[in-house]
Amino acid sequence: MNNRIINWFKFASPQTFYPLAGKMIPWFWALTAAFGLAGLYIGFFVAPTDAQQGEGYRIIFVHVPASWMSMFIYLVMAFWAALGLGFNTRLSGMMASALAPTGALMAFLSLWTGALWGKPMWGTWWVWDARLTSELILFFLYLGFIALQSAIDDARRADKAGAVLALVGVVNIPIIYFSVKWWNTLHQGASVSLTKSPAMAQTMLWGMLLMALAFWMYSIAVSLTRVRAIILERERHAGWVDELPELKS
Known about the structure:
Layout: H1 2-9, H2 14-46, H3 60-87, H4 90-122, H5 130-151, H6 155-169, H7 172-182, H8 202-234, H9 239-242, H10 245-248
Helix pairs in contact: 2-8, 3-4, 3-5, 3-6, 3-8, 4-5, 4-6, 4-8, 5-6, 5-7
């Protein structure tokens, strides 16, 4: 048992994680394509037209997965940031830095597709609804994290400063999730719940879940690609970097 724990801990080193990430990336890109094509096909060609919202509801196959991932990525980013802050591990800060741009992209997609959906449903592109406002705050938290790290030259100091901001911002995640229950908002409640039957047709549900998996696989693939670039940048003076086959060619 102790040997297995030691084997897992060795991947906390950038030197050992770098080649592992390189092996995983093609698989996650392949899964992204497979889940994405299946989800788009079901969502746009198989799922029935909604009785109330017509064809416009199909934006959910992008909006809902992007919203889920914007919150989930922030939690994962904060987790890595906390590990780096608590144990002073180099890779943890790198992982948090790699996740932030993808999280910001998901938050932007959530807001943008929400506006496209809100215009025909509510008659306006934007309202200062509790969920929309808290999602906008999440987007600014991502941008603030990225800007703060970019403003500090020393990478380790930047990681620590970013970690504090990331941990403070975690309080916004339950606000986003429970906002429709805590306040009287225009935003509709959850269509998928762990405790209730889904409030949508099975084909709609399958399309949305497949798209959620596609967004998840994409987020992993692009974050691993980015963390490899960060590792090379920060470890460029380490001897093992010079021995990498891709840098010798």
